[in-house]
């Protein structure tokens, strides 16, 4: 695990519906952390003018664009669905540039000492190489049934769609192996806030 001098860098991970974004918002909103959401950064790099946008359009063609010339993520998803080689190529157009952005932003913040600490949020701790630049990696662990119910209510997921998403995510054991600390989020937001506070105070260690 990378030991950074000065400002602590916390990696935050978890599967879909786990509540990792809620934990990230607690760290940012309550404790003033700089939040770097790797999925959002990837989206920004995929907008017109971004480096990932150029590479993706050059490879997949302009048929994946919608009427306003933005990448249609539905069309792009169909291109890589059940095609491991194309998915690997797509990831090569995004992951390295997201990592470069995150590392540069961390360096900038540490030089200016402008935040109390940094939170890097991602569902892919290994692909994101969190261990290379984070002091700690927090895993938000949530029961499968709770996650399914949350996604049913928030995104109108049915059982089939939920199971399809899980296929491409890490198992509970893999997430735990990639983390240094665990937040259990099967209850209320207040309960999650209490666990975040304890971890920041050095309690509830894995």
TrEMBL record:
Q: Which reaction does it catalyse?
A: 3'-dephospho-CoA + ATP = ADP + CoA + H(+)
Q: What is the gene called?
A: coaE
Q: What is the lineage of its organism?
A: Bacteria, Bacillati, Bacillota, Clostridia, Lachnospirales
Question: Biological process (GO) annotations?
Answer: coenzyme A biosynthetic process
Gene Ontology molecular function: ATP binding; dephospho-CoA kinase activity
Q: Which HAMAP family does this one have? A: Dephospho_CoA_kinase (MF_00376)
User: Superkingdom of this entry's organism?
Assistant: Bacteria
Arranged from A to Z, the UniProt key words for this protein are:
ATP-binding, Coenzyme A biosynthesis, Cytoplasm, Kinase, Nucleotide-binding, Transferase
What is its pathway? Answer: Cofactor biosynthesis; coenzyme A biosynthesis; CoA from (R)-pantothenate: step 5/5
Briefly, what is this protein's role? Catalyzes the phosphorylation of the 3'-hydroxyl group of dephosphocoenzyme A to form coenzyme A.
The listed locations are: Cytoplasm
Name assigned to this protein: Dephospho-CoA kinase
Q: What is its EC number?
A: 2.7.1.24
The family line of this record is: Belongs to the CoaE family.
